[in-house]
TrEMBL record:
<dbReference type="GO" id="GO:0005507">
    <property type="term" value="F:copper ion binding"/>
</dbReference>
<dbReference type="Pfam" id="PF00403">
    <property type="entry name" value="HMA"/>
</dbReference>
<dbReference type="InterPro" id="IPR017969">
    <property type="entry name" value="Heavy-metal-associated_CS"/>
</dbReference>
<protein>
    <submittedName>
        <fullName>Copper-transporting ATPase</fullName>
    </submittedName>
</protein>
<dbReference type="InterPro" id="IPR000428">
    <property type="entry name" value="Cu-bd"/>
</dbReference>
<dbReference type="InterPro" id="IPR006121">
    <property type="entry name" value="HMA_dom"/>
</dbReference>
<feature type="domain" description="HMA">
    <location>
        <begin position="2"/>
        <end position="67"/>
    </location>
</feature>
<dbReference type="GO" id="GO:0006825">
    <property type="term" value="P:copper ion transport"/>
</dbReference>
<dbReference type="InterPro" id="IPR036163">
    <property type="entry name" value="HMA_dom_sf"/>
</dbReference>
<keyword id="KW-0479">Metal-binding</keyword>
Length: 69
């Protein structure tokens, strides 16, 4: 298992957490998504390293901006 933490900009509420969790959680190989709302961090556990562009696209689809890992 691989765990990576990403910085995400724009999350402000529980809806934001759900939207990001659902989009990122739908990526192939993802087994867990944890969001630290106050810190703006999203920690993703996956079976193998994820393509950052795929994570960026999922976060963008949820309506937020991935600042990086």
């Amino acid at each position: 298992m691989v765990t990576t933490t990403y910085q995400v900009q724009g999350m402000t509420c529980g809806h934001c957490v759900g939207a990001v969790s659902n989009q990122v959680g739908a990526l192939p190989g993802v087994t867990d998504v944890t969001v630290d709302l106050p810190a703006g961090r999203v920690t993703v556990t996956s079976e193998q390293p994820l393509d950052e562009n795929a994570v960026r696209a999922a976060v963008d689809e949820a309506g937020y901006e991935l600042l990086g890992a």
